[in-house]
Amino acid sequence: MSALDLIRRSILEEFSTSLSLGSIILSLITAFIIGLYIVYIYKKTFAGVHFSKQFTMMIILVAMVTSLIIRTISSNLALSLGLVGALSIIRFRTAVKEPIDTAFVFWAVSAGIMSGVGVYVVAILSSIALGGLFVLSTLIGFKQANHYLLLIKCDVHAFDVINRSIQKLKRSKLRSKQIIGSKVDVTYEIAIGAKEDITQPLSRVEGVDSVSIITYKDEFGL
Questions:
Q1: DSSP character at residue 94
Q2: Can you list the alpha helix ranges (DSSP code H) found in 15-76?
Q3: Using one digit for the tens of pLDDT, what is the confidence trace for 128-148?
Q4: 176 and 190 assigned to the same domain
């Protein structure tokens, strides 16, 4: 037997596994369970502005579809080569708002691949470990405070009181200040916890007309 025949035989043996309905269902169920776990971790650690239910459903669907594709092409060499050619001409243009969302999508794809090739125990245990470590990282300080723009309209004599209160925050920066007659329009960039409320104390200061707070995404820090 020539070397070419040995190579051809080794390649064909890799795709000689039979495709059964039971294996497909088992792969889909495993991917579905892991997808639900990924969504649970995503909800627990979500720190964005708008929570998208469609994105969480996409995570589950991506894991299941990936497992189905991998399970199918693992039994047929022609299908695997055809899939590579098909994916090479597909362009995905969906915008991902948060960088961490991309990591969750890759996690779903990885879980789907492991479920598709049949390493169910590895897929489940590695996902549990990955989720636990990620939650732990958010608890020990990797989760940042939320950034906001604080807009205040007040009298000139009330500005000093407002400014002293803002300076007591751990992170704050004056962005703009406009004086129109006896009124002052001032904008601060602040970083506070999600449950911390500073609008009520500021609104009770004498001479304050309005206090507004807007979610602000600062990629470079204060």
A1: P
A2: 21-45, 53-73
A3: 999 999 888 877 765 555 677
A4: yes
> Quick one: tokens of 26?
């088992």
| Same-domain status, 153 and 206 | yes
User: What CATH code is carried by the domain that includes residue 160?
Assistant: 3.30.70.260
Residue pLDDT, tens place only, 22-44: 888 898 999 999 999 999 999 88
Q: Are residues 135 and 183 in the same domain?
A: no
- CA nearest 150: which of 203, 195, 221? 203
Please write the tens of the pLDDT for every residue from 1-26.
565 565 455 444 544 555 677 888 89
Written as one letter, the residue type at 133 is L
Is residue 117 within 8 Å of 67, Cβ to Cβ?
A: no
The pLDDT assigned to 193 comes to: 67
124: buried, middle or exposed (CB in 10 Å: 19+, 13-18, 0-12)? Answer: middle
User: For the whole model, what pTM was predicted?
Assistant: 0.60
Q: Is 209 in the same domain as 102?
A: no
Q: Does residue 124 share a domain with residue 58?
A: yes
Query: What is the residue range of 126's domain?
Result: 3-142
